[in-house]
Amino acid sequence: MGTIAPVVEEAPQSVPAYLERHYWWAYVHPNAVRVFERQWLVNLILWGNFGRLRDAALERLGDSIGGRILQVACVYGDLTQRLVDRLDEDARLHVVDVLPVQLENLARKLGSSPRTTLELHDSADLNVPDGQFDQVLVFFLLHEQPLETRRKTVAEALRVTKPGGRVLFVDYHRPHLANPMRLIMSPVLRLLEPFALDLWRDEISAWLPEGARDLRVEKQTFFGGLYQLTEVIRAEGS
Ligand SMILES: C[S@@+](CC[C@H](N)C(=O)[O-])C[C@H]1O[C@@H](n2cnc3c(N)ncnc32)[C@H](O)[C@@H]1O
Questions:
Q1: What is the pLDDT of residue 237?
Q2: Based on CB atoms within 10 Å of each CB, which residue in 82, 94, 100, 224 is the most buried?
Q3: Average confidence (pLDDT) over 159-171
């Protein structure tokens, strides 16, 4: 048996106030992992779309993924295991999260994974040099964050991406007017996820850093517009 991917904790991170206040039940509480680490449950929360969104992101990353990849924040379910399965021999995956309990859970899920590093960092301050990664994946994180943190997360994801590389954001999106999910999801999100409706109001491009240039933004929507995959590509030589 191989060794479990080690969790690197360079410095303790304080738990962001929005996580403690609004998401303690989903991520912070010691029982959260035990309750939510179920593929069927995360699929249910996304109305049966987890696999579709996961696979759409993986398809963009590539059948065979090379280079250095960053996943910003852990995800319940098998997204990261499937990403690891696609890594080339020379590829490296870094996953950062602000909660040790989430990184430890991911380490258990991955088991032996020599091409993966798990690190304790806040998405708003990744603490790595510029232009380190070929591709960056941010899966259902932005909707959990208040505006200022979300802006910093977007800026950090772009900062650490190489020229010619890209950032993939998968998240909520404003459903089409005729989509009945609007009626269900609007009160649900208002109640449980207080910042999520920002993704109904604004495009992710609204949170790009001021003065950011040479970026190409492409958006694909799913499930009557309730979900999006937005790709931000940095031009070569930018
Ligand atoms: C990616 S989001 C939600 C994913 C999705 N809802 C799921 O099924 O898991 C959840 C993760 O984001 C992490 N997270 C939240 N705020 C963060 C931050 N500022 N920096 C790094 N990780 C963060 C949480 O600790 C948690 O592991």
A1: 75
A2: 94
A3: 97
Distance CA 173, CA 171 (A): 7
pTM: 0.95
The alpha carbon of 237 and the centre of ligand 1 are apart by a number of angstroms equal to: 31
Q: Which residue has the tokens 């990353």?
A: 61
- Testing ligand 1's pocket by substitution, the residue of 122, 125, 144, 189 carrying the most ligand atoms inside 8 A of its CB is 144
List ligand 1's pocket residues with C-beta within 6 A. Answer: 16, 19, 27, 42, 73-77, 96-99, 102, 122-124, 139-141, 144
In testing the pocket of ligand 1, which one of 15, 18, 19 has its CB within 8 Å of the most ligand atoms? Answer: 19
The full length of the chain comes to 238
Mean pLDDT of 22-27: 96
- State the average pLDDT over residues 66-83: 98
Supply the residue whose CA is at minimum distance from atom 12 of ligand 1: 73
Task: Report the 10 Å Cβ neighbour count for 3.
Answer: 10
8-state DSSP, 208: S
Q: Give 50 or 30, the one with higher predicted confidence.
A: 50
Q: Which of 119, 140, 141, 189 to mutate to test the pocket of ligand 1 (most atoms within 8 A of CB)?
A: 141
**What is the pairing mode between strands 133-139 and 7-8?**
unpaired
pLDDT at residue 10 tops 80: no
Give Rg (Cα) of the chain.
17
* CA separation, residue 39 to residues 10, 78, 206 (Å): 30, 7, 32
Cβ atoms of residues 72 and 123 within 8 Å:
yes
